[in-house]
Design brief:
alpha/beta, seven-stranded mixed β-sheet, Aspartate Aminotransferase, domain 1, homodimer, Aspartate Aminotransferase, domain 2, four-stranded antiparallel β-sheet
Amino acid sequence: MIDFDQLFARDLPVPAARSRGWPRYNFTGGHNDPEIVPVEGLIASAERVLRRDGRSLAAYSQGGNPLGYAGLRAFLADKLASKRGIETSADDILITSGSLQGLDLVNQVLLEPGDTVIMEQLTYSGAIERARRRGVKVVGVPLDEDGMRTDLLAAALERLRTGGVRPKYIYTIPTIQNPTGTVLSLERRQELLRLSAAHGVPIFEDECYADLLWEGDWPTAIRGLAGGAAVIHIGSFSKTLAPALRLGYVSAPWTVMSRLLACKNDGGTPALEQMVVADYFGAHFDDHVGRLKAGLRHKLEALTGALEEQFGSAAEFRPPRGGIFLWVTLPDQVDTAALAGPALEAGIAFNPGPDWSVDPVAARHSLRLCFGHPRPAEIQAGIERLAEVCHRETGIPERSANVARDQPLPSR
Amino acid sequence: MIDFDQLFARDLPVPAARSRGWPRYNFTGGHNDPEIVPVEGLIASAERVLRRDGRSLAAYSQGGNPLGYAGLRAFLADKLASKRGIETSADDILITSGSLQGLDLVNQVLLEPGDTVIMEQLTYSGAIERARRRGVKVVGVPLDEDGMRTDLLAAALERLRTGGVRPKYIYTIPTIQNPTGTVLSLERRQELLRLSAAHGVPIFEDECYADLLWEGDWPTAIRGLAGGAAVIHIGSFSKTLAPALRLGYVSAPWTVMSRLLACKNDGGTPALEQMVVADYFGAHFDDHVGRLKAGLRHKLEALTGALEEQFGSAAEFRPPRGGIFLWVTLPDQVDTAALAGPALEAGIAFNPGPDWSVDPVAARHSLRLCFGHPRPAEIQAGIERLAEVCHRETGIPERSANVARDQPLPSR
């Protein structure tokens, strides 16, 4: 018998456990609204594209450009121009297996152990973790209600320059920031570009959520602004359609793209999903996203209502301007990483704040609640139960629904 | 403006060029037969699975097991048991984006720079290249008509042990070997297992092509033999259905699987493809593969016929026992890597032998011709034209279709 433990590479992640199944109240991850998956539309698109182009599946990359299915790249070229202000040719867009693969490819092409990158202080856990796995130092820049504080970014860049460090990129989620839900102001986008040019540090713009802005001004993507030609921009169909489809994209200068493409040695992004999404969104993008946003906004109201009712002033949050998650901060007594276990025992899953922070300690009282997947009634019930577990474990919240927590709650 | 050239990581692959499109006569890669893509069957399956499970796309991994879509894992557990002799639970099968992702994950989990692995002397270029990219030394073991020479494997293992080297794995494509088309005999499979146990070196079995054996005895997979429980086994739907779907799988002991799964941080294998393939193959695997094999065998005959006609005794080959490619050796005057450029100018693409060999110099007169994609008439015309280019560049073949090559050919 082979003893594999003697053979594994060093520094692997801890082994995966057997799957535990879906929690009863799931507020984690970037799951989307199942009710709004356009099943009949996808069926019609699948039929149309398979009948027209199905035989092309017999060749790697459908016998076409390794950048991805031409129809989806053409759709994206239009969408990026009309909605994000990015003028690009379809031949400068790369389709990836989720924007996550875009993130991995950019990291592979730019990062080496010992490098430094800059991110928003609170940001996507995967971005922090993947950089650190490569032995890269992550410098966090605080946010306020307008996104990354560019004055503090300037100071950080200056400090790094003084220390002889040129960071490899400034990673930002400018439009519906993850996890804070903020939108970076136009002035700050321009300031970011100015700082990028002054310090020779590229901007790495992640726009996974940008299409889900509820309303109001829709700031141009940083890559679409004057001086934005060198920005590396990634996006996703996970949030506008469905994450299990695993489709994202990269828009970047060819200097970078030619490197990403050389490293993308996966035999091509799966084609059926590309074909179906190109066909469906070619006709229905605005309708679908409009419906999706209405549903998500309704769920956000259910979530903030439940939090107010169950946690009262103990839960601090700023409603996001779009998207699928809410960043909540609880009083100092609550350590959200410690709460996660007992909550899961009670069927409630959430993302503890430390995973979403460059400085885990600073976020130990916060958590991220994703409201995309559960129905409003499940959101209500889940938050009720979370308040119960949290009270039991930490004494917080002291009151729920205007009733002191040491009395039984009126309804369950 | 950002100068990215100052920022790229060291040792990246050379930048990709802009796509040149599909060559007129394409004998490269692992492309499949476009005529046999079951378009109407896939449409019916897509409709059925989307209507039944489409809403599950709203969650990562469809809210299920990160190993992959349960229906496809169940199909595979049956198929592996009935066709490959591997008894396994669906919960010990991982669905990957092509078997290529399986290969990458296994490498990630086992290999470090400075390690050694053993492969067949002639083998899949991607396996050689990916190991070498990780700074791993590849030791080749010669093949004969029954696959890897286990006597020479024993000698190589002994030599390495004497030198204090324990290889990380023995990679083999036992059933329809790539590129030689051989099938490893049962005795050698058992001997391989004996050597694996004696030296504590795992077997990494790649069965991408095994379903395409024309006829005759169908040797049990090495993982299915007594003592095979520690074997890591990968397979693919690229060759039985369509490579652009990007679906493969891993069957491995949980010790290894828990590591592969921890490293598979891609957000899940795309779900629509998994659902459609599970449904379609759940009802049609044998029919479809039977049709596919009949078509491929007909194409192989077209290829060997054209080679005999155009190259005569100058082209040496042993018809494969199944699959999609033929390994051809030309006389010493022909350097196939040098021939590839002029051939591509003339619209003919093939895989030069050195890419498919642990020792590139030893394979410099050989080439791999994949006959899966072109139609028989294109095969005929492509080989005619290849003979023309080859004669012009090297003087080989001296005669074609029984006519000396310095005379014009009778037909074109």
